[in-house]
Design brief:
This protein is α+β, with helices and mostly antiparallel strands. It has a single domain, classed as Glutaredoxin, CATH 3.40.30.10. 62% of the residues lie in helices and 10% in strands. It has ten helices and five strands, in the order αααββαβαααααββα. It has a five-stranded mixed β-sheet, sandwiched between helices. A hairpin with a 2-residue loop joins strand 4 and strand 5. Helix 1 runs antiparallel to helix 2. The radius of gyration is 25 Å and the shape is elongated. It starts with 7 loop residues before the first helix and ends in a 6-residue tail after the last helix. Keywords: Disulfide bond, Oxidoreductase, Redox-active center, Signal. GO terms for molecular function: oxidoreductase activity. InterPro entries: DSBA-like_thioredoxin_dom, ScsC_N, Thioredoxin-like_sf, Thioredoxin_domain. This is DsbA family protein. It comes from Xanthobacter autotrophicus.
Amino acid sequence: MPPHLGSPTTSLRRLAPRLFTLALAAVSAVVLVARPAAAFTDTEKKELGGIIREYLIQNPEVLQEAISVLESRQMVQEASQRSKAVGEVRQLLVNSPRGIVAGNPKGDVTLVEFFDYNCGYCKKALSDLQDLIKQDPNLRVVLKEFPVLGQGSVEAAQVAVAVRMVAPEKYMAFHQALLNGRGQADRAKALAAAKEVGIDPALIQKQATSPELNATLDESMKMAEALALNGTPSYVIGDQVVIGAVGFDKLKAAIAEARKHPPVAK
């Protein structure tokens, strides 16, 4: 799950110095509207700064309120920017031949998941995805390898791409086997998962030098960058980008919203 802004206390400690400075500057600006800076003596400027500082120290909840407003505005701005980015990459996002499609290929809502085989939250979120597919016969799911947790993740993702190339009908079984496996995923673990679901590892090995491996991962990385994704799992549902393992209910709600307000084709 990607890093978030954290608890109010954490946010306060991180942002308070900046907000304190901004608060001083803002109040000073209001005062200067009525009286130019040049009209203040150095002593008056010092006194004014002291008054503002004392007020904020005596009323620290003002900083807490400011942080809450700032974070809310940032979240709204990020959501708006991501929604716009979704529209710009939508066709590649939902229809790229390099994506694995699960659920109903002709479903009326597409959920795209960016995942990493070494992401603990992705492992936990697998059951959410499986339940959504079982309960929603009109849900189309697209999986995007997004290896951001080290070399082992890259190796596992490359094997996954090779599985898609040689045995696409067994990809979901492989995907589930590897995510449910113990320990760090890497090439060896991925090959073992492929063998477990009936894929000859030799077929995978033959694709080891295929340019398609890196091309697929590069495509996912570019889309993730365009959408400002900063962790896994991340989902795109309609025009909405959902960051983190938010759980079955929130994903279901996002799907319902996308069904109610489908994306406008561009």
